[in-house]
Amino acid sequence: MSDVVTLERQGAVAVITVNNPPVNALGIAVRLGLQSSFQAAEADPEVKAIVLVCEGNTFIAGADIKEFGKPPQAPGLPEVVNDIEAGSKPSVAVIHGTALGGGLEVALSCHYRIARKDAKVGLPEVKLGLLPGAGGTQRLPRVVGVEKALDMIVSGAPISATEANELGVVDSLFEGELLAAGLKFAEQLIAEGRGPRRTGERIDKLEGIDNAALVAAKRAEIEKKAPGLFSPKRCISAVEASFTLPLEQGLERERELFGECLTSPQRAALVHAFFTERLASKVDGLAKDTPVRDIKTAGVIGGGTMGVGIAMCFANAGIPVKILEISDSARDQAMQRARDTYGMSVKRGSLTEAALEKRLALISGVTDYADLADVDLVIEAVFEDMGVKQKVFEALDTHCKPGAILASNTSSLDLNQIAAFTKRPGDVVGLHFFSPANVMRLLEVVRGEKTSDDVLATAMAIGKKLKKVAVPVGVCDGFVGNRMVFQYGREAEFLLEEGATPEQVDGALRKFGMAMGALAMRDLSGLDIGLAIRNRQRETLTAEFKLPTVTDKLAAAGMLGQKTGKGFYLYEKGSRTPQPNPELPAILDAASKEQGTERRELSDEYIIERTIYALINEGAKILEEGIAQRASDIDVIYINGYGFPAYQGGPMFYADAVGLDTVYARIREFHEQLGAWWKPAPLLEKLAKEGRKFADL
Ligand code: 3H9
Q: Cα–Cα distance between 301 and 594 in angstroms, integer?
């Protein structure tokens, strides 16, 4: 018997317990332990039924993701689950927490399943670029039918215990103690003389339905929604095998398809994205036992879209929050904005009316700084102007209680300067939310020169509580995300002046996997945004740092993007669908002439190099300056805040995958051809010459 899996007998029931923190993943020790425990229970004549239960917060949450890409060690999970299913004594999986991936596959190989009421079950492998590879694609359709199995496996979304019970994935629900529930169920099985009920032998849910049509429909849906993704298509093919092949051959087909996914570059990128998201929360040099301040109440300064979005994040997390506005009418407008935004969720069906009222009850509007005297954390979300910020922080310093954390949502201003407006710079931190704040997962936590350790630790912890992906960053213009996106957006605009259309630039980026094209994104945020910055740059930058002029030409003509119905694209009234802007070609021609650029054909590959390599080069500079702790933190920021495809792993992972020597060589060419913006980052040059990767740092 192993340390991580134990077997004991309680009367006629063998109790097999998995104890492999933190999530009982199915590493080799667990697989060996499960195999030997089930064999021992099978061999023990006193045993009449078997209960499988887990210690800790959760049932088995899946295969051990750390083992992917390493040489396989026997027994593999498919072998273990097939043996469990083949057992001659009825087995019961007792599910709590999350039975995910291989965990649910183990449960499906047990003959019966019961779940605690708050549990969830699912097959999320697709999110890691995989498919369920231990029988899940063959057994789940046999339990819930092909349609539901396709939904669950292709989306990877878990379902609640209640739904699992309704669908027959679990036989019954329970509350309270796990083992007691498991023993009760097993003893009942014995008493009723019920033997094994093998999922693999079932075909009732596969019959009498046009499964081929369901598969064809799902294929068409995925072709439209996610044409570039590798694993969803294979998930569908594997489920198809559940009704076109007998179990054994279906399992073989699943293995084959799983192998294709396992070796795909997308799997490596998605697993990188999974682990690095968790790694990003670990702050270098911050002791694990750093005390964290208690945040029971919060305040937000400014009731615009951003301020209200931030306040909603707190309300969603059950934390009472006050929005401070300058007048009664502005305060009322902010409250109405919160009501309207929640109202849209109610309309969509993702929030109940009761939940809306409960959340709104946690938000209150105030107009006096004195009303913020008792809050534990306050976030400023006012206009991006240092003079305005100064007034706010001086007022906060006067009114907020000692120990309150004073945060700024600034996206580009110097946090150290902001902190200096107070007599407590150690309590000042940046909390840079992304718009819409109540939706976007990314939170850049900006560590100022004087931000104290416990304030930083608290900011990271509150990020987690708000269900954000909090990533620590240092102070510089634009921090990590916006500093890089400036380079990316500039290149996208230059490409327009060199001969591309917005449709071509955005089309190439979307094909690469970006959620949105660079120019459509610009139209969304508004072309007047950054105009002041660009004008300032034109005055301060030396002549070698040219700037594109197309955006400013559009803005000058009153075409500010979606909000005016015209920008890089045309938007019909009430629509967000970009269409060609008939006035653009003339503007592009004028811009090209002004820049002395001959318009020419540009390939998709070239467009990707110009935009994505611009991100990479700036990312390398950011890394070298210590603004980001690790290359992978930059990836996390880009995936969660800028729509970078997780299956490409983020810009820095992508650079490693292309090869830093290749990227560096191309950036050198761009430097020669296009000028100073493209000066290669010294870190990139060094790594490329040493044959190393960002991941090696
Ligand atoms: C699979 O099963 C393939 C099979 O079909 C076929 C095989 C042949 N392995 O997320 P958290 C770590 S594919 C290794 O912060 P939470 C995680 O890195 C798998 N480690 O906690 C973190 O470590 P650290 C299908 C894992 O409470 C710690 O556990 N399953 C694994 O917010 C805590 O994680 C999945 O895709 C793993 N499988 O959420 C489930 N999972 O503390 C993936 C977690 O060092 N996991 N870790 O940073 C999850 O969705 C969430 O972790 C879970 C807990 C919901 C379970």
A: 43
Using most ligand atoms within 8 A of CB, pick from 4, 20, 23, 121 the residue to mutate for ligand 1. Answer: 23
* Phi, psi (deg, nearest 5) at residue 380: -85, 130
- By the 8 A CB rule, do 299 and 449 touch? no
CA–centroid distance, 10 to ligand 1, in Å, is 31
Give the residue, out of 20, 65, 79, with the most ligand 1 atoms within 8 A of its beta carbon, to mutate for a pocket test.
65
DSSP string, 394-461: HHHHHHSPTT-EEEE--SSS-HHHHHHTSS-GGGEEEEEE-SSTTT--EEEEE--TT--HHHHHHHHH
For the chain, helix (H) and strand (E) counts, in that order, are 28, 19
Distance 25 CA to ligand 1 centre (A): 7
Residue 583 backbone phi and psi in degrees, to 5:
-85, -10
- Residue with CA at minimum distance from ligand 1 atom 16: 23
Instruction: Give which of 22, 84, 79 is closest to 51, Cα–Cα.
Output: 84
For tokens 């709104």, name the residue: 360
DSSP, collapsed to helix, strand or coil, labels residue 17 as strand
Distance CA 472, CA 295 (A): 19
* pTM for this entry: 0.94
Ligand 1 atom nearest residue 274's Cα: 18
125 is catalytic: yes
Ligand 1: residues within 6 Å at CB? 22-23, 25, 58, 61-66, 77, 98, 100-102, 105, 124-125, 128, 130, 132-134, 136, 275, 278
**Which amino acid is it at 307?**
G
Please tell me the distance between residue 378's alpha carbon and the centre of ligand 1 in angstroms: 33
Structure token digits, residue 569? 């694209």
For residue 132, the ligand 1 atom closest to its alpha carbon is: 5
CA 117 / ligand 1 centre spacing (Å): 21
* DSSP secondary structure, 471-535, as one string: EEE--STTTTHHHHHHHHHHHHHHHHHHT--HHHHHHHHHHHT-SS-HHHHHHHH-TTTTHHHHH
Select from 511, 519, 486, 405 the least CA-distant residue to 451: 405
Give the closest residue (by CA) to ligand 1 atom 11. Answer: 278
How big, in percent rounded to 5, are the helix, strand and coil portions of the chain?
55, 10, 35
Position 662, amino acid: T
Series of mean pLDDT values for 10-residue runs along the chain (697 residues):
89 98 97 98 98 98 94 96 98 98 98 98 98 98 98 98 98 98 98 96 95 98 92 98 97 98 96 96 92 97 95 98 97 96 95 96 97 97 93 97 97 94 98 94 97 97 97 95 95 96 97 96 86 78 88 93 94 92 95 91 98 98 97 98 97 98 98 96 98 97
Q: Is residue 192 annotated as part of the catalytic site, yes or no?
A: no
Q: How many CB atoms lie within 10 A of CB 371?
A: 15
